[in-house]
Amino acid sequence: MPVDFFTPTELSRHHRAWYSRPWVYLPLVVALVVLLAGLLAFLPLAAYLRHQAAALDLTHLEKMESASVIVDRNNKIFGQIYVENRETVPYDQLPANLVNAIIAIEDNKFYQHHGYDLLGIVRAALKNLVAGHVRQGASTITQQLARNSFELKGKTFRRKLLEMFVARRIEDNFSKQKIMELYLNRIYFGGGLYGAEAAARGYFDKPAREMTLAESATLAGLVKSPNKLSPWSDREASREARNLVLNRMLALGFINEGQYQQAQAAELVAGNRQNARGQNYAIDYIRQQVIAAVGWDRAMSDGFRIHTTIDAGMQAAAEKSLRAQLDAAEETPGYNHQTYAQYTALMRDRRDSKDNSKAPPPPEYLQGAVIALENKSGGILALVGGRDFEHNEYNRALQARRPPGTAMLPFVYAAAFSKGLFPGSLVEDSALDNRTVMIGGTTGILGEWGPENAENRYEGQITAREALAKSKNGAAVRIGT
Known about the structure:
Blueprint: H1 10-14, H2 26-55, E1 68-71, E2 77-81, E3 85-86, H3 96-106, H4 118-131, H5 141-149, H6 157-173, H7 176-186, E4 193-194, H8 196-204, H9 213-222, H10 226-229, H11 235-251, H12 257-265, H13 273-277, H14 281-294, H15 296-301, E5 305-307, H16 312-330, H17 340-353, E6 370-373, E7 380-384, H18 409-418, E8 426-429, E9 460-463, H19 464-469, H20 473-480
Helix pairs in contact: 2-6, 3-9, 3-11, 5-6, 5-7, 9-11, 11-12
């Protein structure tokens, strides 16, 4: 029978082209609508954030709190005053290895991008999506500088977009070299150390420009998680982070195979954390004097270089000697008071248990003080106010006002000798009524200025030399008056 080719048949219905079916285009239409709506919402937000970024004062990038540096009489740094332990340095004082290490681990397209890396952002987003959590960041060095300089906190799309606009402004106004200088002077390296110079001095006891390749890689490895990866917190984790940086530097051609092997084999050596903090009685006294002179804000952030009469070598020797002498005294048989070692163990246990519910007990171990003066100028060469500043900040050398006792006798005799008295001159050693010298009032008992102990015997006429050697109080009072 004849067939009507215009009448749909069962066969034609089943073989209809997919693109001729209306429902196929529905997801595409929905996607376009959503995209258009997102674009309409994004454009005003982008314009607002761009305006907000343009309103920021870029001079703030260079306004960093810098530690005031304390130097001794030989111009050697032995302490700092700071809120943030930072010492800013120019780009030419930063080692090339550190710059390359930072680029290798943080932003290997630093010299190619103009503030942000869109491909890097997409790549990081895909990796994080596949992993189901944040595994890789996409912030460039410039974005990190923007975030840390202008307190752009929070993990939101709005904050990230603002950060990108600010980074673009920074790139438009500063050279790559200046951006790297600002970045390395600002970022936190853990352990209370801000900026590469303070970190180099704190961890390695040297200026940044003298760091080795291994040390530069160690600092670069800390940036991701400063406190967690600090060699003071976890030496093994810090070493692994350093080696990862070295591996990236090798892959990017910053170092050769020989340099890589040598740096990777180097032992990770970091200085003592307490020494890095550099707080002791002498520094605390200087700090108080500086604050009194220029005010708290300037002392903490203006980066003064403070010249003192302290001799750093003598200061260290005085601290060591005082500790050794008092340690020996506490080891005397029959000594039944708290010792320095016992109190240190007590504080360590409190720290390990993280018990901050109440203030720690004050130390009751044996204390002492040392002060050394330069006779010619009166300048302080060494000042030690106790055994441990961290345990107790009370400065016994300056704040513990106690009668000097017979420690004054050498000064009395020295003054008398300068006035013409000779060591062989005869002086009178006998009981003395304090009413004759009008010290301590007009009343008193006979002999108050006489013997120091019950075994003392008055010897009458004796030489000044002998009176000084035997600490004769009666003779000393007569000489002094």
